[in-house]
Amino acid sequence: MSIKADYLGMPLSIDELDAENLAYFKYCAEHDFHLQLCESCDLLRYPPTTACPWCMRREAKWVPVEGRGAVHAYTEVHHAIQPAFKAFTPYLVLLVDLDRQKGRPSAEEALRIVGNLATPEGKLAPPDVVGRVGIGTRVRMVFSDVAPGLALPQWTIDETAQQPKPWRYAEA
Amino acid sequence: MPLPAEMDTSSPKHLRDKYAIIGVGETSYTRGSGRTTRALGTWAVRNAIEDAGLKPSDVDGMLSYQSGDSTFAPFIAGDLGIRLNFYMDVFGGGSSTEALIGMAMGVIEAGMCKTVVLFRAMNGFSQVRIGGTGARSAVPVSGDMLHSRAYGWQSAGQLFSFTFLRHMYDFGTTPAQVAAVRAAHSAHAANNPKAYYQKRVSVEDVLASRIICKPLHLLDCCVETDNATAVIVTSADRARDGRHPRALIRGVAGRVCKPRVDMHYQHGPISTVAGKYAREILWPNAGVGPADVDVTGSYDAFTFTTLLQLEDYGFCKKGEGGEYVSDGTIRLGGRRPNNTSGGHLCEGYTHGMNMVIENVRQLRHDADDSCPRGTDGRRRHTYDYREGGCRQVKNCEVTANLGWAMPGTGSAMVMRRD
After folding, report:
1. What is the model's pTM?
2. Is the CB of A27 inside 8 Å of chain B's CB atoms?
3. Distance CA B309, CA A71 (A)
4. Do the domain assignments include residue B37?
5. Between chains, do B166 and A135 touch, taking CB under 8 Å as contact?
6. What is the CATH number of the domain that holds B231?
7. CB B257 within 8 A of CB B408
8. Tens digits of per-residue pLDDT, B262-295?
9. Enclosing domain of residue B106
10. Where are the domains of chain A?
11. A chain contacts of residue B131, beta-carbon cutoff 8 Å
């Protein structure tokens, strides 16, 4: 069944034919991060796809994955393009290397998960928190609830982790 | 300098120098054209046909690229009385020009037609904003966009910034080095009477402009304009009858991709772009290397895109792009000027085609600057690159165009003077 919902005043929808995204976001709605594990080559993949990018096999099973990692790159958006985000500037979009499967199947590969910097409750982070995060910051996954069957995975600072000094643009 | 044979991934090179660009044309670069894309495209194609010294009946193939924001080839052909033996309108923006030039060579080689005109017609400011504002930012978010747009990660600048920022982290590239690209291209545009922005800006001006999304300042981003551009490809033999010296095509690479293409961030290093792969097709096909190139046209949707491509195509060592673009090399009068028209940052935005047009004019030794004309109608270039002066590169023999779609996809072309 398709899902239509509103997030920050922005229409989101998942088509009933989009089986991979329906499954992915259903797990997210339960605040449970799952990815497809290829039954042939044993590699996880992101975002959801219909075949394995490494061995072309179609069969995969959804497995739980711990949402912890470190910021690989980011952008700090000051001029929002989408009306939905204008009230939240500056906001951060993070590219996070998951600890799981980092450096596999080749040294330069990782499961790099996109998300905003958020509060532990899944709200977009306020400016003073945005200013603490850069490349290297340890983060953990939280969720922004949108609708039944749909929550967006997000990132928040992992307060329990030992934090390196983050690399931030023009502050190095 | 050719690459070692083991890096040569391309097919046989029998097309080297066998095709040429014989005509180029464009409309003015404006914000608020007051015309349809059909009118813009028709005028650009007509200008290219006249530039080539051809009649409409000499053209029998047409290619265009667009993103649902333009007019299809048959309408432009019909308006100009061109009867087509071949046409195709493909989806795409940056990195299309060089790829379609390769396709034009292929269809002529296959005997499907004789002479192909390519065009790009767009109201990139007044109708479909290229930066993603207006109607483009209001569409429902579904499918793959749930993993991007839903996070306020949608415009080209936002999407590419992971690559740009990570390059600074990996190699220590500084904001001032990157800003030097804008300063250079603006100096070139000051000598281009048709450029939209003809005012010179300094590195300090770029750094003082407001942040759009880190690491991009406003002046790191190109201008959005309304315009159309066209180029005509035909066989080198047929091109002998043209009005101008031929711009011979040495080699092309079209929409070469990094692993995982649309999800290229999954595969690192993310500070490397598709040029790393495209160069293994481009240079062996062209039979030349970066050191042989006199003028580059490295796509400048952003200052960073110029830098990253010059680096990954091998014009400098990996990681030294910041130095390469800021040490004077890419300025007029430097060792290898880039985007001598002012490029997308200053001349106007046409998804790469205006940079090919500029290099054709450079190879003809006929850059359309303010230098005086002789009695034969040709410009007498002064090679005085001060503001408002000449922009012809002296003894330009070989050019390279490096087209950019996104970090994960690029196209390229090498041309030489006849």
Report:
1. 0.96
2. no
3. 25
4. yes
5. yes
6. 3.40.47.10
7. yes
8. 899 999 999 999 999 999 999 999 999 999 999 9
9. 10-128+225-239
10. 3-157
11. 81
